[in-house]
Amino acid sequence: MIRYIKLTIGIFLILAASRFVPHLPNFTSLVALSFYVPLILGLNFIPALILCFIITDLVIGFHSTIFFTWGSVILIGFLTLYFNKSLNYRLCGSLVGAIIFFIVSNFGVWLNGSYGYNLNGLITCYIVAIPFFTITALSTIIYSAIIETLMFYFKFKVKKIN
What we know:
Blueprint: H1 2-20, H2 30-41, H3 46-60, H4 66-79, H5 87-111, H6 119-128, H7 130-154
Helix pairs in contact: 1-3, 2-4, 2-5, 2-7, 3-4, 4-5, 5-6, 5-7
């Protein structure tokens, strides 16, 4: 239990640093951490990850699509079940995570009614969000590369989840 708490505090510090430091919109470690924390530490760290997001969102401020953001974190965490075989699989998995975040979070934006409750509104919502997706994908690649480098350097073992 003490190890879990210590690791959760570490996750929080890394997440908070990437969210509180001035950055481009969507240029955070959100997707990479959502993918790699469960990959390295196990699925039982998904609740710790959500708790860290809740705490940082208390400071940043809640928004109308917050449950879609947190929901995408959970979905991305479970991706590790399918993308934990090799470096290439993990990097592809983190990018699939960015796509899931894009789809889920922007679906939440559309449900808020900003673009109208019709197919044209849904399509417009996703088209308008493409520049943000580009930044999310770029940050995911960069943070994933950093995490992979640290995994290699410190010889982290990927959790084998059966």
